[in-house]
Amino acid sequence: MTLGVALLAAGCESNSARSAGRRDADAGSSADGAWPDGHSSDDAPDDSVVGDDSPGVLADGGAEEGSTGGALGDSTDANGPVDARCADPCTGVCVAGRCLVTLASGELHPYSVAVDRTSVYWTNYVGNGTVKKVPREGGPITTLASGEEYPHSIVLNDTNVYWTRYSSPNGAVRTMPLAGGPVTELVSGQDGCHGLAVDGMNAYWTTLSAAGAVMKVALDGGAPTTLAPGPDPLLNPVEIAVRDTTVYWTNWRMLVGTVMKVPVDGGARSTLASGQEFPYGIAVDAENVYVTNSIDLAGHSRGGNVRKIPLNGDPITTLATGLDGPYGIAVDATSVYWVNHGDGTVMKVGLEGGAPTTLASGQDLPYHLAVDSTSVYWANYGDPLMNQVDSVMKLTPK
Questions:
Q1: pTM of the prediction?
Q2: Which residues of the chain have a pLDDT value below 50?
Q3: What is the per-residue DSSP string for 130-166?
Q4: Residue 78 per-residue DSSP state
Q5: Rounded to 5 degrees, what are φ and ψ at 125?
Q6: What is the pLDDT of residue 165?
Q7: b (16+ CB within 10 A) / e for 132-165
């Protein structure tokens, strides 16, 4: 990962022109400088991870102290900017007809986010290492687990929440009921658990290390199975998805990055796309795999793209280009959604392409996002050194 960070930093513009006007942050930082994608804060690019000023809006609709919320609405009342174009009452800030709500603020580097019918769940990567949830409409925050060692990716099924611990050699896949309860460790002793996916039978994860691998374990525990072993010069697995009988993942490499698949029961792995430029986020539907490429072939952060790859691997379609560090990605029946970590935007584009839409801007280092039938949710990882706020956000309609 250090190689990728160095290349990402090489193609970026000056930070000084982009960091003015930041809000004061009420956020923690990692005790040992570890970042959630495996590199050190000492290796962080100075300019590829800077967004613009975010609206200082709390979940109850009020503005943060000292914040005007930005020039977002048609007018301003006691609760901040108001935009009459919002069709439904908005408890946050109405921006161009969409309601932007801060569900949680002052978190400790929220990284991954997931949503079900009632709640939004996320991991706080540093500090006390927590897994939390909040009602989708806002309200009290519940801490489900604490004292975790770098909780990373988070996913859900109908009964449980699952997360990885990005630690070495103490990496693990852990779970607990959605309503709370005892934590069960499905597997431990892993070397840097990163991406995570679940189906009705198993949990699947990547280990991002010198001997990176794609693994699975039964949801009731047991011995883990290696689906794609390392070491391999082309295997640097990060994000992972599962659909039906196949597991898909991205290998995060410059120029030789790949998107691969393997049967859920093991067997020969196949390459769907090669020659990718640091492929990271991955989502899958019935026909295609969707991936984000973090930078372009020249190492420029603003050369990132979103691509669509048929499940058989051919042909590859580029849906969006000129993106500033796209990372997390999600898909629904009509659109592909992603966050741009570099310029702090949340975007979407139709499944067949077309002009991308910027849903939100001025966000603070978003890594991952999730969607449901009405809204898009994301986690702002933030950086207190750049006066950024660590928060969990919701935008309606998507």
A1: 0.81
A2: 1-35, 38-82
A3: EEEEEETT----EEEE-S-SSEEEEEE-SSEEEEEE-
A4: T
A5: -70, -30
A6: 96
A7: bbbebebeebeebbeebebbbbbbbeeebbbbbb
Q: φ and ψ at 317, to 5 degrees?
A: -115, 130
96, 83 contact by CB (below 8 A): yes
Superfamily for 2-396? TolB, C-terminal domain (2.120.10.30)
Q: In terms of Cα–Cα distance, which of 222, 192, 196 is closest to 207?
A: 192
Find the helix or strand (DSSP H, E) in which 9 lies.
helix 2-10
Q: Which two structure tokens, joined as six digits, stand for 73? A: 């609405």
Cα–Cα distance measured from residue 204 to residue 18, given in angstroms and rounded to the nearest whole number: 38
pLDDT 10s digits, 33-66: 344 554 433 333 333 222 333 333 332 333 333 3
Question: Tokens 């769907």 map to which residue?
Answer: 272
The C-alpha atoms of residue 196 and residue 208 are separated, in whole angstroms, by 12
Q: Distance (Å, rounded) from C-alpha 215 to C-alpha 195? A: 10
130 to 9, 78, 133, 188, 279: CA distances (angstroms)? 30, 34, 10, 18, 28
Residues 6+ apart with CB under 8 A from 29: 41, 109, 126, 384, 385
Cis amide leading into 366 (omega within 30)? no
Sign of CA dihedral 47, 100, 347, 278: positive
Contact (Cβ atoms closer than 8 angstroms) between residue 34 and residue 40: yes
DSSP 8-state class, residue 251: E
Nearest to 385 by CA among 8, 13, 4, 30: 30
Question: Distance (Å, rounded) from C-alpha 109 to C-alpha 350?
Answer: 30
Alpha-carbon span 209 to 39, nearest angstrom: 11
Tokens 């310029």, residue?
343
The rounded radius of gyration (Å) of the Cα atoms in the chain is 20
Q: How many CB atoms lie within 10 A of CB 331?
A: 21
Q: Measured on CA atoms in the order 71, 77, 80, 82, is the torsion positive or negative?
A: negative
- The whole-angstrom separation of Cα 256 and Cα 233 is 9
The domain locations on the chain are 2-396
Q: State the residue for tokens 């932007």.
A: 100
In the structure encoding, which two tokens stand for residue 286, read together? Answer: 């019935």
Q: Which residues contact 150 (CB under 8 A, 6 or more apart)?
A: 34, 36, 125, 126, 129, 165, 166, 167
